[in-house]
Q: What sequence folds into this?
């Protein structure tokens, strides 16, 4: 059986992201916010979410936020919010410059997808600038498709493409634990935090 991409080991500086004590994906914590805020400013400059907005988003949506870290250093994050119509939004996401091109962005997104499935949310959206070809490639590789182009999404002459990924609920697997036959049991997928 072929392993899903989320089950394949990823590497940062030659060390597996999933090696115990080396690197891991985890839920964001309140004490992470100053670091996330600094990474946000470094990546997005004047379009970065201010600290107080990150704090309020954290209070509302923390259960869907994912952080990638290695030896206590945060290498990337995905800030996710869920609307009242069953749609999750990747509000912001970045991977530190030194950790890029190691599969961390893909792992962050796949972990977001797993959390969404667990919450019975099967639609994820995000926005991206067309010129950000690395991000566009990542999003397309993970299954996102453009659904809209808005010329003024972040203000006058600040265009963004709106991308969406829809997926089916996680398939259930047969379990033969009852003496009279099979029964449906849902087993969790992916790494559990």
A:
């Amino acid at each position: 059986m072929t392993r899903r991409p989320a089950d394949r080991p990823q590497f940062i500086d030659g060390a597996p992201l999933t090696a115990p004590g080396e690197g891991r994906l985890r839920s964001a914590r309140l004490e992470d916010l100053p670091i996330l805020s600094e990474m946000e400013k470094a990546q997005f400059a004047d379009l970065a979410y201010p600290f107080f907005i990150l704090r309020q988003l954290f209070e509302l949506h923390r259960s869907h936020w994912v952080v990638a870290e290695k030896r206590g250093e945060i290498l990337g994050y995905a800030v996710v919010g869920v609307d009242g119509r069953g749609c999750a939004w990747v509000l912001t996401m970045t991977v530190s410059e030194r950790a890029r091109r190691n599969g961390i962005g893909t792992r962050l997104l796949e972990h977001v997808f797993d959390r969404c499935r667990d919450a019975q949310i099967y639609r994820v959206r995000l926005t991206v600038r067309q010129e950000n070809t690395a991000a566009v490639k990542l999003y397309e590789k993970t299954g996102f498709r453009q659904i809209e182009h808005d010329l003024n999404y972040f203000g006058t002459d600040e265009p963004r493409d709106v991308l969406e990924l829809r997926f089916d609920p996680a398939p259930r697997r047969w379990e033969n634990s009852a003496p009279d036959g099979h029964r449906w049991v849902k087993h969790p997928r992916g790494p559990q935090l």
In short: The first helix runs from residue 33 to 44. Residues 1-21, 172-187 have pLDDT under 50 and may be disordered. The helical segments are 33-44, 51-61, 104-118, 133-141. The two ends are 24 Å apart (CA to CA).
